[in-house]
């Protein structure tokens, strides 16, 4: 790697190739990234974590790396990964900077999708080099995460003079850098949450309903179907829409809502909301005929009105 950092600040192109690495926050992400950097030749030297789960993760993915307080992590490492929850990040950065833990020339990297590098301004004022490297991947907290980083896109935000350093770190972890402007970070993160986090909820609900319907192995039933749907969506976008909503089968949708109301009333609001969004997209792309959409939207309005949720009146 051509862009790394010594203890005294130098031009990014002049820094030595291998870094000591520290992790502040041994959640699911930090130990996996540090383990990946270790495979690339860097040397994890310190990790901080509080919960029992954090301690176990650190021991499993970074064996023999000492568990120390956050300030000590910064004292030992040239590259520091801040892998704490989004809401905790600003306070952590301010606290580390105010206590003098941040050193000039130190690479301070956070992995939050929500923030760019502005959240690292307190560290920047202390002389640190700020990078935002967000892996667009869901993490389990196990060794499988290191493997999944191969080919993973990273949302990268960095000062112009550190772009080479950011790119090199991502590539060394097996990832692909995708440059995100500072002002676009919240939208970027919302898009990922909409796709990945909500997908987990939808799949879990679907499996529960299939079990209620008597399916013994809902995961086996859904695997090929959802895999094909995802592949089609990634390849074709809205052209991949199928099912009763896209076809305008209002009677089928009404039957669905009736069954959900009887067996899983908590799922009605989500079904109706996603059906409305699907109908809007199908209409916009000419897949749903307007004359069929009227009855369909009426069914969905009726379904929304019976859920009792906070959006019921708005749906009408």
Tell me the helix content.
Answer: 40-55%
Distance between the termini: 58 Å
- Tell me what portion of residues adopts beta-strand conformation: 5-15%
The Rg value, from CA coordinates, equals 24 Å
Mean pLDDT: 91
Biggest sheet layout: 7 strands, mixed
Which series of helices and strands comes N to C?
EHEHHEHEHEHEHEHHHHHHH
Summing up helix and strand content along with how strands pair, one would put the structural category as alpha/beta
Numbering strands along the chain, what is their spatial order in the largest sheet? 2-1-3-4-5-6-7
Tally the helices. 14
What's the number of extended β-strand segments? 7
* Low-confidence residue ranges: 1-16, 308-316
Verbal overview:
The protein is α/β, with parallel strands linked by helices and 316 residues long. The chain contains 14 helices and seven strands. It has helices spanning 30-39, 52-61, 70-76, 89-98, 121-125, 144-148, 163-172, 185-212, 218-236, 244-247, 250-263, 268-284, 290-305, 312-315, and strands at 20-24, 43-48, 79-82, 107-110, 129-135, 153-157, 176-179. The chain has a seven-stranded mixed beta sheet. The longest helix is centred in the middle third of the chain and has 28 residues, at 185-212. The chain is elongated and about 65 Å long. Residues 1-16 and 308-316 have low confidence and may be disordered.
């Amino acid at each position: 790697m051509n862009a790394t950092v010594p203890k005294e600040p130098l031009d990014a192109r002049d820094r030595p190739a291998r870094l000591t690495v520290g992790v502040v926050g041994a959640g699911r992400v930090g130990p996996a990234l540090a383990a990946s950097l270790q495979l690339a030749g860097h040397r994890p030297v310190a990790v901080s974590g509080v919960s029992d789960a954090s301690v176990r993760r650190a021991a499993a993915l970074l064996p023999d790396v000492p568990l120390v307080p956050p300030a000590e992590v910064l004292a030992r490492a040239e590259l520091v990964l801040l892998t704490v929850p989004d809401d905790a990040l600003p306070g952590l950065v301010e606290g580390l900077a105010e206590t003098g833990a941040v050193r000039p020339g130190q690479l301070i990297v956070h992995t939050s999708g929500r923030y760019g590098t502005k959240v690292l301004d307190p560290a920047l004022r202390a002389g640190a080099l700020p990078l935002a490297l967000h892996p667009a991947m869901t993490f389990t907290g196990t060794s499988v995460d290191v493997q999944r980083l191969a080919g993973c896109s990273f949302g990268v935000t960095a000062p112009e003079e550190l772009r080479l350093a950011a790119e090199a770190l991502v590539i060394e972890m097996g990832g692909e850098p995708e440059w995100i402007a500072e002002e676009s970070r919240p939208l970027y993160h919302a898009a990922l949450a909409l796709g990945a986090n909500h997908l987990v909820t939808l799949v879990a609900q679907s499996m529960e309903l299939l079990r209620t319907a008597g399916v013994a192995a809902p995961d086996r039933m859904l695997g090929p179907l959802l895999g094909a749907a995802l592949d089609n969506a990634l390849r074709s976008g809205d052209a991949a829409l199928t099912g009763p909503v896209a076809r305008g089968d209002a009677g089928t949708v009404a039957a669905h809502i009736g069954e959900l109301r009887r067996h899983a009333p908590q799922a009605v609001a989500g079904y109706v909301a996603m059906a409305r969004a699907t109908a809007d997209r199908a209409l916009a792309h000419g897949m749903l005929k307007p004359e069929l959409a009227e009855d369909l939207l009426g069914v969905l309005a009726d379904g929304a009105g019976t859920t009792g949720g906070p959006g019921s009146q708005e749906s009408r």
